[in-house]
Design brief:
By secondary structure, the protein is an alpha/beta fold. The protein is built from eight helices and eight strands, in the order ββαβαβαβααβαβααβ. The protein has helices spanning about 50-60, 80-90, 105-110, 130-135, 140-150, 170-180, 205-215, 215-225; strands at about 5-15, 20-25, 70, 95-100, 120, 155-165, 185-190, 230. It has an eight-stranded mixed beta sheet. Strand 1 and strand 2 form a beta hairpin. The chain is globular, with a radius of gyration of 17 Å. The protein starts with 5 loop residues before the first strand and ends with a strand. The structure holds iron/sulfur cluster. Iron/sulfur cluster binds near residues 32, 37, 39 and 43.
């Protein structure tokens, strides 16, 4: 049994796994360097602060009280089969398994499909601007492969787009939505950008951050193309 590195835990959430009361485990390590990362302490691989066996024992005590466990990060799939094995153990307790992923590991995602019940996949920007935001020039291609895998598997999933006005314009958003529409994606979550760490970066104003949410024409255009649109503001 390979040990996974867990760097954070939320014991109860109603927003991270749609429709389920869930706990969230934040796994250590991420191959990307998003400028807006809200968990920078998780990016560099290191020994996790949480003992996986103690977390597992705690999850056992939550059986019947929680419905799901979300694996987030960092990038939960960076730890490969160690993550999948731990997910399976948690699933065997009776929990539904959620996964938040940036899509950087399509091969691991393929192997995890039978163990995961629901996926939230980040689609962070247009292909042209992906590298600028995440600091990795193959990230878009890999995310796109992961999306194809989820579509082909008919998995329950949502595509999540964080609307950082420094990296997404309204026309970029429509370009992404058109791509998702063409690929038959059914659920998209549009998330308001929250400035956690803007030190040394171009700051954003509330009206820049809210422009997507306040534009009824834009909202209508998107609603016509995607069956379920969740506005997380
Ligand atoms: S993918 Fe997530 S954890 Fe990784 S750098 Fe980007 S925001 Fe941070």
């Amino acid at each position: 049994m390979r040990e996974i590195q867990i760097g954070g835990l939320v014991s109860f959430t109603t927003i991270d796994y749609p429709g389920k009361l869930a706990a969230v485990l934040f796994l250590v390590g991420c191959p990307l360097r998003c400028t807006y990362c809200s968990n920078p302490h998780l990016i560099t691989p290191h020994d996790g602060e949480y003992d996986p066996e103690k977390v597992f024992d705690w999850l056992k005590s939550r059986v019947g009280k929680l419905e799901g466990v979300v694996f987030s990060g960092g990038e939960a799939l960076m730890q490969g089969d160690a993550t999948i094995e731990y997910m399976q153990r948690v699933r065997d307790l009776g929990f539904a398994i959620g996964l938040h992923t940036n899509g950087f590991y399509p091969n691991v995602l393929s192997r995890a499909l039978d163990t995961v019940d629901w996926v939230g996949l980040d689609y962070k920007a247009t292909s042209r601007r992906y590298n600028e935001l995440v600091g990795n020039d193959i990230a878009y291609k890999l995310m796109s492969e992961s999306l194809d895998i989820l579509i082909a598997a008919n998995k329950s999933f949502e595509v999540r787009i964080t609307l950082d006005p420094r990296y997404i314009t309204k026309s970029d958003l429509i370009e992404i939505i058109n791509d998702l529409h063409a690929r038959g994606v059914k659920t998209v979550a549009l998330q308001k950008y929250i400035p956690h760490f803007e030190d040394g970066q171009t700051p954003t104003t509330p009206s820049e951050r809210e422009q997507f949410f306040n534009d009824s024409e834009l909202r209508e255009q998107i609603t016509k193309l995607i069956p379920t649109v969740i506005w997380r503001g």
